[in-house]
Predict the 3D structure of the following.
Amino acid sequence: MVWCSKLPNVPVYNNSQMVGRYTHTHPEGLDFIFHQNMAQRPFFLYWAADATHAPVYASKRFLGKSQRGRYGDAVMELDYSVGQMLAWLRALGIDKDTFVFFTSDNGAAVMSGPKQSGSNGPFLCGKETTFEGGMREPAIAWWPGHIPAGTVSQQLGTVMDLFSTSLSVAGLSVPDDRLIDGLDLSPVLHNNTLINRPIFYYRGNEMMAVRVGPYKAHYWTWSNSWEEFNQGINFCPGQEVAGVTTHTQQEHTMQPLIFHLGWDPGEKYPISVVTKEYQDALSRITAVVEKHKKGLVPGVPQLNMCDMAVMNWAPPGCEKLGKCLKAPKSQPWKCDWPH
């Protein structure tokens, strides 16, 4: 039997147990919040909306309502859903006790066509690249009575920081029995303190770039392969920069391409290597990279996109993991991934 549906098929989990599949999950999120509040239990809700991910979709209420095609409809519904959750927290009287953080795991995909793609504004390229369009995302922290409304911070952060930050705002300590990559950004949230820290841009196991202050150094450049590009798939449509948005993996480790993101957020104009600015920036960045590499500890891969055993082996109508279809044995391998 082949299970298929024209509707999105979104698995919803309670801890490690899948509890159902839904086409839109924000009503289930509201229900979860309600029951946790009624039971006077603290809760953690990770709500990952996928409507803006290809294939883009929106419910009937929002279809055709935006001026930006199907993608705009999906964003409109996403905005509505977030608003419903915030309003629910207020209605239940727990808004001042609930820390909400909104962000994305990557920049908008720009290769899916005019009706399926988002926009990254002035930033170069998009999802699946380590240019700013692929890595720089919006971030909004909401906690009435604790985070001053309307505050804008220039702090650099990563999604990895959410672990340490969430533990801190909950009054818990970060585990000291392992290396933790993220930082506690609660001082930024409460006092708008700026924490000086570098940001490393990885693609797979390769450090492609690093940012230190306003400077970003590219040690490798690559958008997508010539094979894909020649098939009409372009990760940087209308934004190609010679020697930067390369379609082969270009190494620059001996002489990194350095950009000042304050003056050039679109990464279009590399700083000349003969200038004092370049040499000063390279000196700072090199020291940061050397320290970073000395502290790296190889991790054991837990997931592999080519390992069929990591898929959700429960078709619609069978909502218990491992109860209906037996998953194949996990056999991770380093597969051919063109991105």
Remarks:
- The mean pLDDT is 86.
- The radius of gyration is 22 Å.
